[in-house]
Amino acid sequence: MTIDLHAETRPTGVDAAVAAARRVIDALVRAGDISGADMADVADRLNAVADDLEDTAPPLDERLVDMWRGDGNTRHDPVTGPENPIAPPLRYEAVDTRTIEATTTLGLPHQGPPSSVHGGVSALLLDHTLGVANGWAGTSGMTAELTLRYHRLTPLFEPITVAARQVSVDGRKIRTTGEITANGEPCVTAEGLFIATYPPRPR
Ligand SMILES: CCCCCCCCCC(=O)SCCNC(=O)CCNC(=O)[C@H](O)C(C)(C)COP(=O)(O)OP(=O)(O)OC[C@H]1O[C@@H](n2cnc3c(N)ncnc32)[C@H](O)[C@@H]1OP(=O)(O)O
User: Fold this and answer.
1) Is this complex's ipTM strictly greater than 0.85?
2) pTM, to two decimals
3) CATH number at residue 191
4) pLDDT tens by residue, 124-135
5) By C-alpha distance, which of 133, 136, 146, 198 is closest to 172?
6) How many structural domains does the chain have?
7) Ligand 1: which residue has its CA nearest to atom 29?
8) Ligand 1: residues within 6 Å at CB?
9) What's the whole-number mean pLDDT along residues 140-158?
10) Domain that holds residue 160
């Protein structure tokens, strides 16, 4: 079964609100307490938005069923999801039948070392990208092992490419590799063992 590599971002609905929330997250981290903003007022206004959303949200089990309808997690996952404000978001393209890649630029919300991507964020991007590469290649699974090597700092504020390739399928064991590169140089490389299975979708 071929999977969709990315969900289209819609200009309206929750996607538009999520895009605004990403701007807010970025702007807050950028501003800190040395900005000229009235942060008490900012907090009041953001809490008013959250109050409104919480008051009108569906029951959790109903939303979970809704999330896992149709093309599954591509709309809400924390790496590519247009419905998820913590997703950068990545937008995958096929390189070949087993390989995918996405190019993005990360900013201050994802900082670890100075002006560099947090190692846990790199792990998130690679885990997910390896997982989607498996789906693209035709055999999906759950991450059982993920081994990362951090070769050099991964820069913020400039394009980085996250790529993954399914290497082999042996019974239920799927082996997948990936890397994050900047300016063509490897920053992080990954080797993953996935086990072919997936939890049932909420119904
Ligand atoms: C198209 C969709 C795209 C979606 C992309 C999303 C990507 C997101 C990726 C994730 O984040 S997944 C979430 C993180 N992973 C987990 O939470 C997994 C938690 N662990 C489990 O659920 C189970 O341990 C697991 C499914 C991995 C394996 O349990 P099973 O009961 O299905 O497997 P089993 O114990 O029967 O082992 C099957 C084989 O795998 C081997 N195996 C299992 N876990 C292993 C491990 N950790 N290391 C090495 N080998 C392992 C095991 O030895 C055995 O080998 P043999 O067949 O040779 O005997």
Assistant:
1) yes
2) 0.96
3) 3.10.129.10
4) 999 999 999 999
5) 198
6) 1
7) 195
8) 3, 73, 127-128, 131-132, 135, 140, 142-145, 172-173, 193, 195, 197
9) 98
10) 88-195
